[in-house]
Amino acid sequence: MSQPILFVCLGNICRSPAAEGVFRQMRPGHPVDSAGTGGWHVGEPPHGPMQVAAEARGYDLSPLRARQFVVADFDRFDLILAMDDQNLAEIKRLQPVGNTSVLRRLTDYAPEAGRDHVPDPYYSGDFDGTLDLIVRAVRGLCQSLDEGLDQGPDQSLR
Ligand code: 4NP
């Protein structure tokens, strides 16, 4: 069974579309999407430098378009992966009582990286470092999906 996965960041033009593009390539056909908690860039393609960095590694982000996270996403996605604690707190705030979607940090899937969030390259300019971390974590995510561990303990309350 393929549990639909949603990657969430702030603008949906850097980190979460990169995670979506990497995941799409690693798990073709698995239901996946990305969204931003903010709406400033709705309808835009991923940020140019993010696309260039991803393209250099063979990930094509060009078909993706930004959209804002909506409460209905809790009905569509079993696993919602946030890039940082700000995104996580915002989606947790919006989660309807009784909804069973699992909310986690993407970095939970790369514990060896020793990071508790994916830093925002929109501000840092480090698009390559961002991709390094995202690729590691998405690999870990795929491994946990293979092992059936994706519905593990909800880490959002740590
Ligand atoms: P993202 O980066 O959350 O990784 O897409 C951002 C891009 C744009 C803005 C914030 C974060 N912004 O405020 O415009």
From TrEMBL:
Entry's Gene Ontology molecular function annotations:
protein tyrosine phosphatase activity
| Record SUPFAM superfamilies | Phosphotyrosine protein phosphatases I
> Where's the active site on this chain?
C9, R15, D120
Tell me where in this chain the Phosphotyrosine protein phosphatase I domain is found: 3-144
Query: Does the keyword Hydrolase feature in the UniProt annotation?
Result: yes
Q: Which UniProt keywords apply?
A: Hydrolase, Protein phosphatase
Q: Which Pfam families match?
A: LMWPc
Question: What Enzyme Commission number(s) appear in the record?
Answer: 3.1.3.48
- Which Gene3D superfamilies does this chain map to? 3.40.50.2300
Q: Which domain of life is it from?
A: Bacteria
| Family membership | Belongs to the low molecular weight phosphotyrosine protein phosphatase family.
Protein name from the UniProt record: protein-tyrosine-phosphatase
- Which source organism? Roseovarius nubinhibens (strain ATCC BAA-591 / DSM 15170 / ISM)
